[in-house]
Amino acid sequence: MPSRLKNRNGQIPNGMTFLVPETNWRPPRYASFTTIVNGLIAHRRGRPDLVRAKGWSLDYDTVANEVDAFNALICVRHGWNDYVMGDEGVAPPPKSQALLQQEKSLIAAAAGKARKIWAGVKTSNEWIDSGAPPAPRETSEFRALTCSQCPKNGKGDFTSWFTRPASEVIGKQIERINGMKLTTSFDTVLNVCEVCLCPLKVKVHTPTQFIKNHTTPEVLAELRTVPNCWIPKELNA
């Protein structure tokens, strides 16, 4: 039987959330369940083209069930069983086309995120293991300044963005960067790029060629939409 949240008025670890892969819409961090539902409905009303194409619902109860299912699935996948309950003894309602589409989108989004994460890991590992020198200090400083002011400089520690294996690898990368005495004036405010999902404290020191080797056309196209992003500028130089 499908799981559902025990308490919609509470929170789950890292906060309840939602994702619309087609538009990359997410609610504010630690938003309440009601805020997420109302925000999602408002977002959908602003995209009538996708409402028609995807069969998205604008009904509060239906959308609330989608948000509930999304967060319950997160809990189940992380083993946070104290936050969910099953529907034992109760026949589950038939899934709407919107929910079926949402489940497909979630799977696609998860796969896409995993590809981004490990592309970033490979980029940094390839550079560090090669023994090649880092980007010039003035380049790293400029990159860090740009990222520190970027709206895509995500908030939260690594566990908010990555699985435990990826977090451990990235932590070791940062240890190696620290061992190389590589710093910038903006390290305290550099987090994770919401587009490429790279840890910025490492990426700002990575030579351009290594970034080019593992930046997909899809990620590059998205980065081009970010004002002042240094990555597409360097790759196009």
What this model shows, in words?
The chain has about 240 residues and is mostly helical. It folds into two domains: about 5-95, no CATH class; about 100-235, no CATH class. It has ten helices and four strands. The chain has a two-stranded antiparallel ribbon. Strands 3-4 form a two-stranded antiparallel ribbon. Helix 1 packs across helix 3 (about 60-80). The longest helix has about 35 residues, at about 95-130. The model is unreliable at about 85-95 and about 105-110 (pLDDT under 50).
What is this structure's SSE topology?
Elements: E1 4-5, H1 33-45, H2 48-54, H3 60-78, E2 84-85, H4 97-130, H5 137-148, E3 153-154, H6 164-179, E4 192-193, H7 200-203, H8 208-214, H9 217-223, H10 230-236
Antiparallel strand pairs: 1-2, 3-4
Helix pairs in contact: 1-3, 4-6, 4-8
Summarize this entry quickly:
The protein folds into two domains: 4-93, no CATH class; 102-236, no CATH class. It is 53% helix and 3% strand.
Query: What is the number of domains?
Result: 2
Relative helix content? 40-55%
Task: Count every helix, treating DSSP H or I runs of 4 or more residues as helices.
Answer: 10
Q: How does the major sheet shape up? A: 2 strands, antiparallel
Tally of DSSP β-strands: 4
Class inferred from helices and paired strands: mainly alpha
Measure the end-to-end span.
Answer: 54 Å
Kindly state the mean pLDDT as a whole number? 80
Low-confidence stretches: 87-96, 107-111
